Amino acid sequence: MNFAIKLLTSTKFAVAIIAVIIILAVVGSVYPGGEEIFGSWLFLFFIGVLALSTVSCSLTRIFPLWHAVTRPAIEVGDEFIQKLPYHANLTGVTVAQFKAHLRGYKWYESTGSETTFIFAQKGRIGRFGPQIAHFGVLILLLGVVIGAAYGQANPYSDKITVIPVGGSQQVDSFTLRLDGFNVSYYDNGAVREYRATVTIIDGNQVQTRDITINGPLNYKGLTLLLYGYDSGGLLGGGKASWVAFQIKNDAGITLVWTGAVVTLIGIMLSLYVSHKRVWIKSYKGRIILGAMSNKNSARFLREVDNLCAKLEDYS
Predict the structure, then answer these.
(1) The domain made up of 159-250 is a member of CATH 3.90.180.10
(2) Among the residues of 177-296, which ranges form H helices?
(3) Which strands, in side-by-side order, build the sheet including 286-293?
(4) What's the CA gap between 105 and 122, in Å, rounded?
(5) What pLDDT score was predicted for residue 198?
(6) Contact present, 158 and 289 (Cβ < 8 Å)
(7) Could you say which DSSP state residue 301 is in?
(8) Cβ(289)–Cβ(132) under 8 Å?
(9) What share of residues in the chain are helix, strand, coil (percent, to 5)?
(10) What is the DSSP code string of 35-67?
């Protein structure tokens, strides 16, 4: 059990699984007929392993991290403070002065008969950046699995359908009728736009839409794209007699994009939000102060050092 947990929470293992998934995705995208890979048990197996690895990694870290961030150690000894990256002994400086200058911090205070302990922190959300990114990856993987499963189950997905102008074709649970196809041109004779006008007939619901090269039709988890047209008829008589549409499955795409955004947010928090912490022990007019930050440490410690020097000058 311990070996399995260590393996699943290993960064090298996760990278190896991601590499395998990328290779399978490239094969499925490049080779003819390779799209079947996305719905195969092999692809879904590695997606499942990556999801399990992500969950294991998050669970083994989130609870200790949550406890450390939400229940920080406030009453610390001199030895603890002296081991921090920055520590200083100050006289003639009050805790209120620090509070006035350290804005945006969350303060914790513990007061005894003679000693006051202060802990302040800022940017703790940055510590949860990796976990937020992991959650985003799970959402993304769920979207991939749904898309793969739906694509395999739907016989209309990843198909080419040819519809004559004025004719119709059954697509999944609705009927697609091709009302017309037009090509517009620039003054110099270059093509401006290809536009197919179609009507969707779905029970009692009837709606007319336009499909262009850059404007596909999305309906009930399927995307219809312009794939080809009767170029001979267009050149000979000025009208195309048929249009070909490529049908793509976009089930799960919302989850994929949502997961990608959440993952990006987690990465940005992890990279750019520093968790800054300051410990203060006040005893008989003497202050012992220590500080640390998980990112941009040198800059933060310089700021604290300058603040301490400034407050001592005022005292």
Answers:
(1) no
(2) 231-237, 253-272
(3) 86-91, 286-293, 276-283, 115-122, 106-111
(4) 5
(5) 94
(6) no
(7) H
(8) no
(9) 50, 30, 20
(10) GGGGGSHHHHHHHHHHHHHHHHHHHHHHHHHHH
Identify the CA nearest to 178 among candidates 155, 158, 201. Answer: 201
Q: Which stretches of the chain score pLDDT less than 50?
A: none
CB 145 within 8 A of CB 47: yes
Return phi, psi of residue 73, to 5°: -75, 120
Q: For residues 303 and 103, give the distance between their C-alpha atoms in angstroms, rounded to a whole number.
A: 13
In this structure, are residues 157 and 252 in contact, taking their beta carbons and an 8 Å threshold? no
Tokens standing for 248?
Answer: 């793509």
Ramachandran angles phi, psi of 173, nearest 5°: -100, 5
Q: Which residues of 14-49 are buried (b: 16+ CB within 10 A; e: fewer)?
A: beebeebbeebeeebeeeeeebebbbeeebbebbeb
* pLDDT value at residue 185: 85
Amino acid sitting at position 3 = F
Q: Could you tell me the two tokens for 37?
A: 């890979």
Q: In the chain, what are the domain boundaries? A: 2-66+128-152+256-270, 77-123+276-314, 159-250
pLDDT the model gives residue 34: 64
Report the distance separating Cα 226 and Cα 213, nearest Å.
Answer: 6
Residue among 287, 312, 294 at smallest CA distance from 88 = 287
Token readout for 184 is 């517009």
Please report which residue ranges of the chain form alpha helices under DSSP H: 2-8, 11-30, 41-70, 78-82, 95-101, 129-153, 231-237, 253-272, 297-314
Question: Of 139, 131, 133, which is closest to residue 256 (Cα–Cα)?
Answer: 139
**How far from the centroid of its chain's Cα atoms is residue 254's Cα?**
12
Which region, left, alpha or beta, applies to residue 169 given φ > 0 means left and ψ of -120 to 50 means alpha? beta
- By CB neighbour count within 10 A (0-12 exposed, 13-18 middle, 19+ buried), where does 123 fall? buried
